[in-house]
Structures are given as structure tokens and as C-alpha cells.
Amino acid sequence: MNETDLAGPILFCVALGATLLLVKDSSIRFKRVSFPMWFLQSALETQNAAGKVQFGYIYGMSAIGCIGIYALLNLMSSSGVSYGCVASVLGYCLLPMVILSGSAVFFSLQGTIGTVLALVIIVWCSLSASKIFISALDMEGQQLLVAYPCALLYGLFALLTVF
Amino acid sequence: MAYHSGYGAHGSKHRTRAAPDPPPLFDDTSGGYSIQPGGYPAPGADVAFNVNHLLGDPVANVAMAYGSSIASHGKDIVHKELHRFVSVNKLKYFFAVDTAYVAKKLGLLVFPYTHQNWEVQYSRDVPLPPRQDLNAPDLYIPTMAFITYVLLAGMALGIQKRFSPEVLGLCASTALVWVVLEVLALLLGVYLATVRSNLSTFHLLAYSGYKYVGMILSVLTGLLFGSDGYYVALAWTSSALMYFIARSLRTAALGPDSMGAPAPRQRLQLYLTLGAAAFQPLIIYWLTFHLVR
């Protein structure tokens, strides 16, 4: 736990972004365009996503969320934690969210089953993140307390995926 | 603090290079640094994400090391400034909570009428942390409730198709301003009513932050059950919160040696707690009614 490894989290963020691009692009999935044109077009479409929540807001909010969880863990635990450790754990536990956005390619998430699946994935992500935190920082009886802010943060990611 | 040592002990390559002392601005191969013009350590031995491999250029390498040393220096400055304003140890007292305490406190906020003993317990003039004393105030619940309130407001506005990030920011900053105003008013009241009081700024912040739990419940009920549900929940949570604040502040304002204060001072204290309690439903209504239209 003393090694800050950001390779996995960055890979998962890229995978999440890629699957989100696939999802947002599903409307032109059946047009016959060449692969490079498809990639460029979907990238431009997401840039011009008027009316949809801007990606910049989401990245900013997740950075602020990471800082918030870093502050909270430093206040709640007896030993401190470094920012890199927090970012790496949160990034690794983002993996189930990639599954959620991958499944969004196959069926729309806006119905009941999509909401239920999103809730299950959020609970899964936040419980695993909080489990790692409390075992690394030796905090007892605080797992649900750590899981709640992680759930709020992953809920933001899920909002990005579903809507 | 603990996080300084944690920072230095990490295994990433470029961090251990920068940690001991600031690297020279020029590529000085005689200084014992492992920056070499041509060769780098064997890639096989290093599985962590190493930015230096990507750059492959000694000048950029030095710039990266210099940049990270600047970053750590900046971080130290931020920590020093922060510790001047906020005593982290006093703040840690308010976050020493566990799940059982939070569950019981939330139940108490919704239904405080059957709770008998409202006194904060002390052990040798030091108040017990929230883990061991249900009556001690904490800052975890108010903070989480505030953040949840902001997110819930965003969701409520989104459901009513009135969402935009500016409105959300407006909501968040309005709530924050009201909290600050209330804490300042309470501080002024406490200063006027008693000369010596056990209530620090963080205590008052905690007590004024408990109303966000009531706000969240009201908004949720309003979203699920419509306008009638909102008013019922508002009435219930307001009365519960008024009772909670009145009982808590009355015993919390006294110290570990709760001798009877002289009569006019006691009356001022009573007016203060009643005023604080009566203010709660107004502010709850003000901050939530536009969300449950």
C-alpha cells in the first residue's frame, strides 16, 4: 500500500472514456463510415454535446471529490494518507464502472434495469474502495462511513454514464 | 504530520529522485544523481508507470524532477498556512466517529423525544470523543449532509428540467452563506450571554449543520410524495430539530462544572437557545421550498 501506482487507474479511465465514446456514438453506429472517420466524428460530437453535461465539469468534480476524500481520510484516521494513495485506490475501484458503461453499449440504461444495475455497481465500487482504505489505514468500525462519500463520488461517474 | 513521511516513502522512481534535496537546474552528472545522458535503469526492473521513459530526454527529466520538487515545496507551504488557521487536532476530535454513533445520532435527529440524558460526558475536564459519547457533536454528519444536500438539489432540479451548473453553484453557495451567518450570529450570542463557554466555533458549526439532515429528508419526501409529503416532513423534522437544538445547547453551553450561573445570564442563555431553535425551521423552509415546486 505504500506504492502509488497510477498505471491501473489511468488505464481504467481511458477504458471508461472509450466505452463512453462508444455509447454516445451509438446513434451513428449503423452508418457506413470508415474507422478513422468514425473516431474523429464521435470525438467531435462529444465536444459539441450541447445540452449534455460537459466533460470538463465531470473531471473537475471528480478531482474535487478526490481531494475531499483525501481530506476526510486524513481527519478520520489516526495515521495520515497521501494523495497519491487515495487517487490510486479510487482509480482502481473504478473498474466496475467500466463494466456499467460497457453494458450501456448493448442496452439503454435509462430504464429500471439500468437504474438497478447502476446502483449495484455504485455499491460494489464504494464497498471495495472503503474496504481497501480501512484495511490500509487501520480504521475500525468506519467502513460504511468511508463508503458513503466514495458512493457519492462514484454516483457522479454513474450519472455521466447513464445520462 | 503523517502525510509528509508517507509522501517520501513512496516507491515511484521520479519521486524518490526529487525527495532528498532540490535537483540542480543544470545536468550535473558529477553530483551523484542518477540522471545520465544516455542510459536509464533497466525497464524490466520497473513496472510502475514511469514518465521518464516516455520522455527519454535528460533536460526534460531534470525539468520533471524540478517541477515535482516545486510541487512538494508548494504543498509544504499550503500545509503551513492551513495549520495556522485551522487546528487539525481539534478538528480531528469532531471526526472521531464510528458507524454506530452515526446511526444513533441520525435516529436522534429524527426522533429526539425519548432521549433522557443530554449531557456531554467528560473525562477529567476533556470532553469524550463522539465515538464514546452520543451527546458529543461531530462534524462528519453535517459535512456529509451538506454535500448530499447539494447533490440532491442538483438532482431535484434535473428532474424538473431546471438544471444547469450555475444554478447548482448558486444553491451550494447560498446554503454555505446561511451556515456562516448562523454560526456568526450564534458566536455573537454566546459571547454576549456568557463570558466563559465550552462552545468553540466548531461546536456551533456542528450544531448548525445538523439541520441539513432535516432538509434532505424533507426534499426526498417532497420528491417522492409531492407537495403534501414535503410539508408533513418539513413540520416533523423542524419540530424534532427544534427540540434537539434546545436540549443540546442548554446543556452544552455549561461546562464540566455546571454550577448554576447567575439568573440574568441564565435567562440570556435560555433566550439564545430558544432563538437558535426557532430559527431552524425558517432556514429549512427557505433553502428547500424552491426545490419541491
From TrEMBL, chain A:
The keyword NADP does not apply. It is found in: Golgi apparatus membrane; Membrane. It holds the Pfam family Yip1. Its main location: Golgi. InterPro entries: Yip1/4-like (IPR045231), Yip1_dom (IPR006977). It comes from the Eukaryota. GO terms for cellular component: Golgi membrane; trans-Golgi network. Keywords: Membrane, Transmembrane, Transmembrane helix. The chain crosses the membrane at residues 6-23, 57-77, 89-109, 116-137, 143-162. It is a multi-pass membrane protein. GO terms for biological process: endoplasmic reticulum to Golgi vesicle-mediated transport; vesicle fusion with Golgi apparatus. Residues 3-160 form the Yip1 domain. Belongs to the YIP1 family. PANTHER family: GOLGI MEMBRANE PROTEIN YIP1, PROTEIN YIPF7. This is Protein YIPF.
UniProtKB/TrEMBL annotation, chain B:
It is a multi-pass membrane protein. Belongs to the YIF1 family. InterPro entries: Yif1_fam (IPR005578). It holds the Pfam family YIF1. The chain crosses the membrane at residues 139-161, 167-192, 204-224, 230-249, 270-288. It comes from Myotis davidii. Residues 1-30 are annotated as: Disordered. This is Protein YIF1. It is found in: Endoplasmic reticulum membrane; Golgi apparatus membrane. GO terms for cellular component: COPII-coated ER to Golgi transport vesicle; endoplasmic reticulum membrane; endoplasmic reticulum-Golgi intermediate compartment; Golgi membrane. One of its GO terms (biological process) is protein transport. Keywords: Endoplasmic reticulum, Golgi apparatus, Membrane, Protein transport, Transmembrane, Transmembrane helix, Transport. Has a role in transport between endoplasmic reticulum and Golgi.
